[in-house]
């Protein structure tokens, strides 16, 4: 039965053609939203309907989308997806990230942003509710992510999704950073954004997502919260140590990626979440509506790595130097490079020692990779 109202969905998609700077709103049919649930489902359907195109051509779509629970108080719903044809795989691909982008997207009144075409110069897309503007981005082109976001925050509020120099150089492992702490990292989505000459999107919403049955919703939300508290892995693990707690769990289960997945012995104790917490006092950060707060940031503002980054720059490279992994994570995030892919690439080609890692990442980000075949 079709509900009498939107309830979770905004029933609006913003379509922006960067080639001619045309902007229009599309009202998707209810059946499309119902059958292709969530940001990933909606994005995949839109990209699929666009047909087979070359990933870095103007014809490819870049879709930012969020599901019906994003923007509501549903626990752990503060996520969004970016869907496109990947320059890394050639297939339809989605990357997922936390932070405030999906939350602001829905509060601005949109289920998705569909970007097509290619600008003839670097541009910034500014969105506040139904006010949409494409402005010149020449002053930010050539900046890495931290500098880009710092400058844009001086110019206004809202959530910012941007690329660094890796995306500008169309690297197939380029990511899209959100607010300097979350990343649409996989599949080279940052390269697709760079191919469109789109440096950044700022979005701010002032609306509210409607809920069909507020009482039933509140009941189920409280049930989910009780289940999260009852889970030791979540309440005593992720909530306390962040995702680095998974290093110890993965080691115990025997599933750490050791020596480029060749296996063998690796003592992961120097990389445990407990050590990261004791040596790098941090503050807990949570995505909107999330009671877990698995993100960790140093009290001075420095980024701390997630489990995947520790795994790929740690045991995957036979490296137990935690500070080196933190530095590798910082460089990757600033250039807008996927840490999982870059760790895999370095492991595949081999290095003489972990001390090479930061320099190699900077070379990759600058397009001066000296790895064979890289």
UniProtKB/TrEMBL annotation:
Pfam families: AFOR_C, AFOR_N. SUPFAM superfamilies: Aldehyde ferredoxin oxidoreductase, C-terminal domains, Aldehyde ferredoxin oxidoreductase, N-terminal domain. Its cofactor is [4Fe-4S] cluster. SMART domains: AFOR_N. One of its GO terms (molecular function) is 4 iron, 4 sulfur cluster binding. Residues 9-207 form the Aldehyde ferredoxin oxidoreductase N-terminal domain. Keywords: 4Fe-4S, Iron, Iron-sulfur, Metal-binding. Belongs to the AOR/FOR family. This is Aldehyde ferredoxin oxidoreductase. It comes from Candidatus Syntropharchaeum butanivorans.
